């Protein structure tokens, strides 16, 4: 057999061996306290209480089936404060965030699938006591209805956004042989006034973080 063919076969075997060696095998979700979203997103905290029987944006059944396969837990609640201001919270948690196939999805897909036009406002930093949380702001419109949306994703205790930031985090954990768990956190409010709506969301996010047990705070907002 020509030397060139032997060399090609050798390089292929090295590549396969390297891929196997680097393939993550340790699920971080199995090494940490168990997340129970229904408890960590309580029906009442601070000035917020759950407003029941309020419909939230849902994707079409095909997309919903795909999302159900990604996540091991989800929770969706609508909260109202003493002023009657409403904030919608959706958290989707999955124990495998190691690739784009298994990682948390982008909310843009759900909203577009539900008939919304989506405008990307940009990425903003929300100062928190222990970190600065990067969130993406969107404006969704469907007919006369407008919804303002903030979201971020996490891998283990790293808060990031879909794109290069998440890819780098996936690579960092993967090179250590780790399969990070994580979640999508989406906060939204009805109404078109961005100054009022996004500031209300910021207040809600801070209040939500504050009520979390200390051991779980980094898993929701990073550190």
Structural commentary:
With 223 residues, this protein is an alpha+beta fold. It has one domain (25-221): Protein Transport Mog1p, Chain A (3-Layer(aba) Sandwich), CATH 3.40.1000. It is built from seven helices and eleven strands. It has helices spanning 3-22, 37-40, 61-70, 107-113, 164-175, 194-211, 217-221, and strands spanning 26-27, 44-45, 48-50, 73-80, 86-94, 117-127, 132-142, 145-155, 158-160, 178-179, 182-190. The strands form two sheets. Strands 2, 3, 4, 5, 6, 7, 8, 9 and 11 form a nine-stranded antiparallel beta sheet that branches. The radius of gyration is 20 Å and the shape is globular. The protein starts with a helix and ends with a helix. Residues 3-21 have low confidence and may be disordered.
